[in-house]
Amino acid sequence: MRNPDNAFHAAIPCGDLDEAVKFYNEKLGFKLARRYPDRVTFDFFGDQLVCHLNPSKLSKDKNPYPRHLGITFYDKEEFDSFIRLLTERQIELLDPVTEFGWENQTDEPMDYSESQIGTRFKDMAEEHLTIFLSDPFNNILEFKYYFDPRMMH
C-alpha cells in the first residue's frame, strides 16, 4: 500500500525549460516546485514530474505506446473538471484514430464540452473514458476515468 506521504517520480525530456513551464504550469495548472538550469519539477497531481533539458532525447512518434504517462481519476467530477480546464485553456487533444492508427480500437468519441473523449472497452468491466494530449516536446499524456473503480489498478 502506498504511503500518502510518498510521491511517484516521473522524468521526461524537454527542449526548452521556459516552454515546459508555460505548458505544465501556466496551461495545465501544475505547481512549479523547483527550477534549475537543467530541469524543472512540477507537482503533478501530488506526484513529481521532472522535465529534464535534453533536446537530443525528444521523440517525433506520437503513438503513446509504450511511452506515455498520466492520471487515472477516481472521481468523475475531478475528471470532468480537468476536461473543462483543458477546454477553457484551448489545449488540443490528440485523436487516437488519426494520430495512433487506432481505427478499430476505440468506440465513437463522445461530444463533451466541445472536446472529444474516447471510450475504450465499451460494455466491459474495463470501460473507461480517455483523452490524450502532447506537450510541446511530444511527450504523450493520458488522462482517464474508469466507471468501475476496481479497474484502476
Overview of the structural elements:
The chain has 153 residues and is of the alpha+beta class. It has helices at residues 17-27, 76-88, 96-100; strands spanning 9-14, 31-36, 39-44, 47-53, 69-73, 110-112, 115-120, 128-134, 140-146. The strands form 2 sheets. Strands 5-9-8-7-6 form a 5-stranded mixed sheet, covered by helices on one side. Strands 1-4-3-2 form a 4-stranded mixed sheet, covered by helices on one side.
Q: How would a crystallographer describe the biggest sheet? A: 5 strands, mixed
Q: Give the helix tally.
A: 3
What is the helix fraction of residues, given as a range?
A: 10-25%
Distance between the termini: 12 Å
Strand order of the largest sheet: 5-9-8-7-6
Q: What structural category characterises the helix and strand content?
A: alpha+beta
**Unreliable spans:** 109-115
Shape: globular
Q: Which helices and strands appear, and what pairs or packs with what?
A:
Elements: E1 9-14, H1 17-27, E2 31-36, E3 39-44, E4 47-53, E5 69-73, H2 76-88, H3 96-100, E6 110-112, E7 115-120, E8 128-134, E9 140-146
Parallel strand pairs: 1-4, 5-9
Antiparallel strand pairs: 2-3, 3-4, 6-7, 7-8, 8-9
